[in-house]
Amino acid sequence: MNASDRSVQASPWTIVVALSLLLGLQPIATDLYLPALPQMQRELGWQPAQTTWTLSALILAFGIGQLVWGPISDRLGRKPVLLSGLGLFVAASAMTVGSTSLPAMVAARALQGAALAASVMCGRAIIRDLYPPEEGAKVMAKAMGGLGALALCGPILGSQAAVHAGWRTTLAIVGVFGLLTWLYVLLRLPESWPAHRRPPAVAWSALTRQWLQISAQPPFRAHAMLTASTYGGLYCYLALSAFVFIDTLQVERSHYGLVMASISLVYILGTLACRASLGRSGLVATVRLAGRVSMFAAASLVLVLLWQVMLMAEPNGWPALSQPAARHVPAWSLLPCLWLYAFAHGIHQPCGQTGVVSAFPKTAGAASALSGFLLASTAVAIGALLSMWTAHPTFHDAFFPMTVGLMLGAFTTGRVALGRVQRDGAPPLIEEPA
Q1: How far is 179 from 193, CA to CA, in rounded Å?
Q2: Which of 16, 163, 242, 413 makes a 20 to 30 Å CA pair with 126?
Q3: pLDDT value, residue 131
Q4: Which residues pair with 319 in a beta bridge?
Q5: Could you tell me which of 30, 29, 27, 28 has the C-alpha nearest to residue 239?
Q6: Please, are residues 258 and 156 in contact by the beta-carbon 8 Å criterion?
Q7: Residues of the chain with confidence (pLDDT) below 70
Q8: pTM, whole model, 2 decimals?
Q9: Do 66 and 78 form a contact (C-beta atoms < 8 A)?
């Protein structure tokens, strides 16, 4: 912990648990209801492409919200912003439970995303408030392990709730988790950003110049690209995996929850490997390790795609893409690809989220917000493409959109990790933007 922050009275594990809850709120909000998506779609009479907008709306508002919450938290402190955002999240969760139309659900999920932005943005900023970059990456990896544990339990709980109590119950559980996080922050988490370190209020024009200065720093660009690309591929899985596994590959809903849980377990192993590698090799070398795993994930997805194309081949040897596939690859064939992606993601995320704020000790909130906005914008752009792709009459299911999206995400992440992060990823000793 920084010498100037010794007044922060909290044990390291109090911080780790708080970060696990704050950062874990995002996969709870996005993952827990995924097993219920096909059920929600059928009950409300939506198309799969429409249903994915319940996720895209949350992510879009999540990105924009960080640009608002970041400067406010730099000025007023992290805890007031967290309590306000988490309170709004609980209220928005109640709105999702009562929604009966697509516009109402999308609006409620957008409000939920705007509130979620406060939780995740402040979580990243707290790391920079209290720890130097290398130590912060280790603490972030511990918190990501807790996040992984929540992501491990979430899909199983969501699938069981959907089977036995309906899709609205899965959305209610999201709200309950938000309420428990609000109580923990209120009762246990101290303020990490003391008043004497807070910058004076600035105009939005000055904030825009500040964001431009932050984005001009090579370490920020490298790690922002890393987090955006690895999450972009993951978003393809989040948006479409329920339809691929449950509707296309005919996996039972409860078994789909186990598939998601296995991916979360491998993600936890990735965070453990991240912590071990950071202690031995440092941040940049750790990202290099994960970049190689990402490339293996991309190669394995190419093999699965080729297998599927062969199964669709006509007697003349050309695949019949304009017809529904009579056969699909077995569901188990996707698991090694997803496990490789999840393992690498468990390394890229703590390293990338620490790296984007590492060079900005005085404006970590602004840097965190800008990185989150870029990540969310990438995901929303991908979501729009996926919606158009799945709605196109040439494609009769979501298999190709999901697997191609994952493959491109893995390949792009590997290129960034092995290229730009190796060149620019070490935080320099720079004069921070005023």
Answers
A1: 23
A2: 413
A3: 84
A4: 313
A5: 30
A6: yes
A7: 1-9, 202, 314-326, 392-396, 427-434
A8: 0.76
A9: no
